[in-house]
Target: Helical backbone metal receptor
Amino acid sequence: MITLFDDLGSDVALRGAPARVVSLVPALTEAIEVTVPGRLAGATDYCTHPSTLDVARVGGSKYPKLDRVLALRPDLVLANSEENRPEDVETLRANGIPVWVMRAPATVPHALASLRRLLTQAFEAYEPRWLVEAEELWRATRPVRARAVVPVWRKPWVILGRDTFGGDVLRRLGISVVYAGHEDRYPRPELDELRAWFTDGSADVLVLPDEPYEFTDDDGPGAFPGVRYVLVSGRYLTWYGPSLIEAHRALDAALSAVLEEGVFTTDDP
Model:
């Protein structure tokens, strides 16, 4: 028996590298399956990558079916301090299940450092090549080339604020998040306030991911008439793991295209 400590400082007692793992975090699901394939026994309904993953499903991240998790008799459950409820973590621990909670990362380096510790310590894996490559790709921070409003939900509008992983991803690509100095990580401003950033010239572009809320050309941009916008993959913007390698190229291309050519909204429903 070995005792490790998760990102929150809680004990995680393991009998060697876990062979049956339940992941309650989509990004961690992908990282584990790519690095140490075959260890996952269960995952949430939102764990969509790798696309070939075939494991038992345990409901959503925020409200997992704990009876399903317990029935899988995992050696380890993976959770996140932002995505998963503390009471669910405590229930699993009370039933004798070790739970590793990853702290919601504020930056790309924080996320990769946490993943390195999880993979090399808990799973006793060699440092994966994708992690080293991701560190190199995301090491530099480009000069600011645009200022963005970045909603992640609507009804009500929820926006990227301070110390968010997605905000740091954009910052490293030269996009400053206008709410980065807000006291909340996810502010909930009124629509008029959001529009004012553009009318007074303080924001240049609206960045709309397809998760957790699925913004589309027909849902979201119309609330900002005349504003330049770009639709991006929420996985590329907010997932930490192997997807960061493709995310660098894909996000940079999408942002560069809209800044150079521009796609403007026209409707105001």
